[in-house]
Amino acid sequence: MGEWSSFTAVVRGLCLLYVTNKYLGTVTITYGPSMLPTLNVTGSMLLVERISTRTGKLRPGDVVIFRSPEAPRKIVCKRLIGLEGDQITYVVDPQSGDRCETIVVHIQRITVFLK
Question: Could you tell me the pTM of the whole model?
Answer without folding.
Answer: 0.68
